[in-house]
């Protein structure tokens, strides 16, 4: 008897990254990378070469590794990549000295000061206002029978919420809405408009901080806003300077805005395309329960979270990650979306299970840069989804999923529009 030769072991070809198909559904490409090239060097659309880290264990290690700096000064930048790793338009300016661009000991000092002002208690006290904002926005389109949930709901909610929390007067909040709109639409695109918007925002925040400092009474007043809290925060006699307070207010806006838009957008989309899970949540809300809502929002973050890749890190010394040598100056991007679908960490990672336990996802990062705004994001996400499903019980997609367009930026993952229909 002749034995059949084994078929040759073949590896499917490496997927193309950063294409239109990839922006629509990056998960098959991430599965390939996790399996065949878990720490993978690639050229990004901007021309910068970076390592992509896709396995959960490596991702968690990288996020906590102090040899990976957040300071772009450590980037060994080739000429063609200069200026491509910062917030567009504001690379050298004062606003760049913020939590996501600095390392200890500066990071420790600033994070401690902001944590004194931006407390979980302040966020909890803000819950009624978030509910009010949510209801007001839904009131505006509830009679129409259709809406674009990104434009009409997911986009304005976080910007008004963070402006209110910071203490930006209501009459100025639409300016912020416009500046933020420019940043979200053109984040990776034409620089001019974005740079102008960032500049206007910075000028406005500096001016507001200046006025608030002048008006600040000796003692804290109940319900005082976050900017006043930032000005007042002190630690062993240390305070934030006006520039640091402006940079802090800016990063709270910047880090807390598009992320939350996408949590609401991606989360609603996932619910509308998983009718059994959505029914389960709706029944549980109707009974006045909160547990499934709380585990559900965490699962939506894991399943299709707003932050596809954590923000930049740069090696400060030679290191090995997932068996791969990384040279000093090399940029490293931790792919949270890939790590959170790693079958080595999550059972049935491609299944949406709103009651998933043991769900230590990396959607808010890990280590010293763990998301400072997580309590606010949870509050907004839970309020938004619960209120939508309760007030518009027959909410459904108003477009074929194949026709929806994803924004395809590098760091964030989110829909451009989310057309929905419901009984008015
Ligand atoms: C950091 C995710 C909402 C403020 C981070 C990081 C992630 C993240 C992954 C770490 C980035 C890294 O290590 O490179 C999210 C998600 C959100 C959200 C998924 C919404 C669902 C918010 C909100 C705020 C906020 C609402 C504030 C209003 C911040 C700040 C940092 C941060 C200040 C930097 C912390 C530090 O470097 O110490 N966030 N975020 N985030 N986030 Fe969030």
Automatic annotation (TrEMBL):
UniProt keywords, alphabetically: Heme, Iron, Metal-binding, Monooxygenase, Oxidoreductase
- What is a single molecular function from GO for this protein? monooxygenase activity
Q: Does the keyword Amino-acid biosynthesis apply?
A: no
Which residue intervals make up region (Disordered)? Answer: 68-88
Per its UniProt record, what InterPro entries does this chain match? Answer: Cyt_P450, Cyt_P450_B, Cyt_P450_sf
Which residues fall in a compositionally biased region of kind Basic and acidic residues? 73-82
Metal-binding: present as a keyword of the record?
A: yes
Signal sequence annotation? none
- Give one Pfam family, short name only: p450
Q: Which family does it belong to?
A: Belongs to the cytochrome P450 family.
Name it. Cytochrome
């Amino acid at each position: 008897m002749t034995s059949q030769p084994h078929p040759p072991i073949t590896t499917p070809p490496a997927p193309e990254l950063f294409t239109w198909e990839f922006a629509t559904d990056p998960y098959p490409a991430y599965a390939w990378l996790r399996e065949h090239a878990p720490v993978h060097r690639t050229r990004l659309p901007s021309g910068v070469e970076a390592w992509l880290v896709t396995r959960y264990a490596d991702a968690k290690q990288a996020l906590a590794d102090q040899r990976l700096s957040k300071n772009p000064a450590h980037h060994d930048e080739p000429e063609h990549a200069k200026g491509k790793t910062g917030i567009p338009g504001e690379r050298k300016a004062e606003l760049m000295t913020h939590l996501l661009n600095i390392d200890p000991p500066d990071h420790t000092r600033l994070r401690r000061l902001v944590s004194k002002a931006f407390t979980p208690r302040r966020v909890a006290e803000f819950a009624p206002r978030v509910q009010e904002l949510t209801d007001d926005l839904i009131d505006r389109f509830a009679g129409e029978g259709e809406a674009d949930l990104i434009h009409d709901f997911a986009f304005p909610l976080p910007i008004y919420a963070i402006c209110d929390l910071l203490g930006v007067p209501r009459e100025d909040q639409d300016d912020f809405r416009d500046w933020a709109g420019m940043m979200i639409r053109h984040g990776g695109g034409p620089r001019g408009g974005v740079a102008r918007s960032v500049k206007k925002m910075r000028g406005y925040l500096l001016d507001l901080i200046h006025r608030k400092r002048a008006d600040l009474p000796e003692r804290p007043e109940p319900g005082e806003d976050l900017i006043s809290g930032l000005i007042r925060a002190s630690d062993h006699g240390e305070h934030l300077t006006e520039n640091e307070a402006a940079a802090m207010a800016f990063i709270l806006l910047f880090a807390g805005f598009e992320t939350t838009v996408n949590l609401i957008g991606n989360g609603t989309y996932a619910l509308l395309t998983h009718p059994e899970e959505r029914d389960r949540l709706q029944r549980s809300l109707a009974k006045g329960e909160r547990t499934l809502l709380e585990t559900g929002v965490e699962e939506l973050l894991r399943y299709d979270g707003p932050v596809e890749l954590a923000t930049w890190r740069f090696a400060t010394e030679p290191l090995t990650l997932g068996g791969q040598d990384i040279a000093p100056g090399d940029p490293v991007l931790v792919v949270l979306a890939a790590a959170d679908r790693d079958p080595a960490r999550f059972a049935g990672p491609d299944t949406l299970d709103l009651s998933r336990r043991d769900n230590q996802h990396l959607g808010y990062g890990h280590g010293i840069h763990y998301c400072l705004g997580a309590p606010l994001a949870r509050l907004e996400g839970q309020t938004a989804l619960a209120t939508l499903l309760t007030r518009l019980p027959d909410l459904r997609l108003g477009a074929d999923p194949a026709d929806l367009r994803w924004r395809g930026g590098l760091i964030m993952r989110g829909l451009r529009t989310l057309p929905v229909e419901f009984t008015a």
